[in-house]
Amino acid sequence: MEFSAFHQDPTGHARRGRLTLTHGVVETPVFMPVGTQATVKSLTPADLTDDIQASIILGNTYHLMLRPGADLIAQMGGLHQFMAWDRPILTDSGGFQVWSLGELRKIEADGVRFRSHIDGREVFLGPKESMEIQRKLGSDIVMAFDECTPYPATPEQARASMELSMRWAGECRAALPVNDRQALFGIVQGGMYPELRLESLAAIQAIDFEGVAIGGLSVGEPKAEMLAMLDALAPHLPVDKPHYVMGVGTPDDLIEGIDRGIDMFDCVMPSRNARNGTLFTDDGKINIKNLKHFDDPRPIMEDCSCYTCRNFSRAYLRHLFMSKEILSARLNTLHNLHYYCALMQRCRDALDAGQWPAFRDAFLQRYRTRA
């Protein structure tokens, strides 16, 4: 993996970069569509490359290890060949999904023992297991196995969780040494405590991962607390490595993140909201279920170049959703993911042109005023 941040906004931490991986080049800042189970729901790889112009997507270790299994995917030539995607893939370690199981899982010194949500069988997943599964998947970027600190958490709980994640981080690096095929990113934890976040960041940097991720955000905390954690970390993030905030978020979250030095984002929000009839625009969200769209001839966004906006009216999209047609999820997802990826292109253009502060302020004012 190679990374260069070749332009920094002089007024703050926003930056423009380029990430070169085994399966291609990723221009940053970038949004990564989530393809949890070897598919971005309702879309084909051609949709993602031709219309959405996604340069990198996600897969998930937890879900793929349970079904169809890492061994089968390896037998089929790895995740890229299995899902016919020839651009980069990042795989999440499975730590967040295991954390979300609640009472179905038990945290042990070497990992987590849990019951499969599919068939109830007992499964163990730890740093070594996660690295081996992701090695078999063949993803370009591998995420370290960690424990997502719950919200709220006491300082004592947050410290114990963070220290466990840092110990596991070292075990991940030992299990997956530096190589020329897969880059390993460490994950900063520490809850909503800046001093713990900085301690965790120092531990991650000492292990010398290829990238730095920030986990444990957007887990129920107020947005002000999330931004406060990014503010605390921004001046200390390594300039020569990519910065990835996990599971975030809304369009304005992405702008705020870029302003704090974040290069990479992912979130299920655009695709999940699409399936529920919620569409993103510069003027906030549109609920396509609303009666006011019954006979509206306009596209979702007048200046959007996605396939959906080029061809279909709000009235038609409402009809599809209310009729429970499969095409509804597909067309809505095409728009939302195109919108997110196009927004990142606009951010890159603003940074290239030295116009980031003006773009940031104009976008946030419009989005938040009309949302």
Level-1 CATH class name of the largest domain? Alpha Beta
Annotated CATH architecture of the largest domain: Alpha-Beta Barrel
Which overall shape is indicated by the principal axes computed on the Cα atoms?
globular
Question: CATH H level of the largest domain: which superfamily?
Answer: Queuine tRNA-ribosyltransferase-like
Quote the distance from N terminus to C terminus.
39 Å
CA-based gyration radius: 20 Å
Query: How many domain units?
Result: 2
Explain this structure.
With 371 residues, this protein is of the alpha/beta class. The protein folds into two domains: 2-267, Queuine tRNA-ribosyltransferase-like (TIM Barrel); 273-371, no CATH class. The chain is built from 15 helices and 16 strands. It has helices at 45-51, 61-66, 70-75, 79-83, 95-99, 127-137, 155-175, 194-207, 223-233, 251-259, 269-275, 307-311, 314-322, 326-352, 356-370; strands at residues 2-8, 15-21, 24-28, 30-32, 57-60, 89-92, 105-108, 111-115, 122-125, 141-143, 183-188, 211-214, 243-245, 264-266, 278-281, 284-287. The strands form four sheets. An eight-stranded parallel beta sheet has the order 4-14-13-12-11-10-6-5. A three-stranded antiparallel beta sheet has the order 1-2-3. Strands 7-8-9 form a three-stranded antiparallel beta sheet. A hairpin with a 6-residue loop joins strand 1 (2-8) and strand 2. Helix 10 runs antiparallel to helix 15 (356-370). It is globular, with a radius of gyration of 20 Å.
Keywords:
three-stranded antiparallel beta sheet; 15 helices; TIM Barrel; 43% helix; eight-stranded parallel beta sheet; 2 domains; 16 strands; globular; alpha/beta; 371 residues
